[in-house]
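To fix ideas, we quote verbatim one protein's residues and fold tokens.
>
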Amino acid sequence: MSSIYQKVLGEDFYKLHPQIQKRFGFSSENKIASIGRGVMEEVWLGKFYTLPFLYIGTWRNIMFPQAGRHVPFTIENYAYQDSFGRETVTWVRSYQFPKHKRRFDATMIYSRQRKRIIDYLGTHQHLAVDIHLEVAPNGGLRLISGQQRFYEGLLGFRFPMFFSGYADVCEWYDDAEEKHKISVSVSNKAWGPLFGYRGSFDVEYLPVTDAAAIPRHVKPVREEQRE
């Protein structure tokens, strides 16, 4: 079974750096996890009036109102099939600030309906975000967010981007440093830059014997069927 990223990129997947292919090339059938540990050189925030966006995001581990330098960081990527039979990859990022530990939770699926990656943000998958993938000039994987939809109970609507942000993410491998690198920027067309970070990390690949071996804390509290 191809990974969800291979499915979207097709032959372009093989233009990625080999280490990036390895990191994004596994599915639930491979029974492995990719665990990254490193340091964010900088976690930055936008202007003071963007803070309400970030405080609201802490309710469901979507964004947070902390900034800092040399912040210890982990990212946990597990592949599994969710309760609806969809191939899913966790993106659980943890940041250890001096006084707070913050998380940014997401799960990605491949949507047959939309023919693209859908990124469910937060612990309860309330926000479903369209993701565009492309190969960066440095052999990295670039992910750009698009339209967002909010789902809760019987409620479902296209989320107004005035109250949210567009993310531009690039992850690549630095041969000279032998490190994975990442750069993230989230911005709003009206309010400007909201949040972002850049840093480097090492990756360890761990065996996953079965779905029961996947830690509960990386999976969403609630799964959303609507895409």
In short: The mean pLDDT is 91. The chain has one domain: 4-218. The longest strand covers residues 192-207.
